[in-house]
Amino acid sequence: MNSNQENDVRSSTKQYVKQLYNLLSKHGDQSSELRDIMDVLSQVYKKIDEVKNPEALVNRLVNYIRIVASTGQINFPTDQEKLIIKLGFIGQKAGLNGLYMADFSDKSQFYSVFEQIPNQN
User: Fold this and answer.
1) Contact (Cβ atoms closer than 8 angstroms) between residue 109 and residue 36
2) Residues 87, 80: Cα–Cα separation, whole Å
3) What is the pLDDT of residues 54-103, one digit of tens each?
4) Of 14, 17, 47, 100, which has the maximum CB count within 10 A?
5) CA 107 – CA 110 distance, rounded (Å)
6) What is the pLDDT of residue 29?
7) How much is the pTM?
8) In the CATH hierarchy, which fold is given to the domain comprising 3-102?
9) Three-state SS for 79?
10) Phi/psi at 64 (5° precision)
């Protein structure tokens, strides 16, 4: 992937993540699962410009959102679902990239060793 394509991926991701975060922040029921998803969205927004493989990060993000939303029985309205689908298209370009047997529900995968992980429980 050339640098122009990579920059497009990063800017599109940031745009979708920001829109999704803003929509979720207006959600009436701020469950711990929803707050966890919002924490991870803000983490991805901060890190997307620094990671070597942005598609892999987006792929992990979408998997995380799907699993946590399922666990917390969160249903996304159409506008939010469309943004998650757009992120999913970006993440599909990553392939499998070492995700075999990964724990997609683990929030710590989005934080470095030196960062404090917000606990919502």
Assistant:
1) no
2) 11
3) 998 999 899 999 999 998 999 999 999 999 999 999 988 876 654 544 55
4) 17
5) 6
6) 79
7) 0.81
8) de novo design (two linked rop proteins) (1.20.1440)
9) helix
10) -60, -50
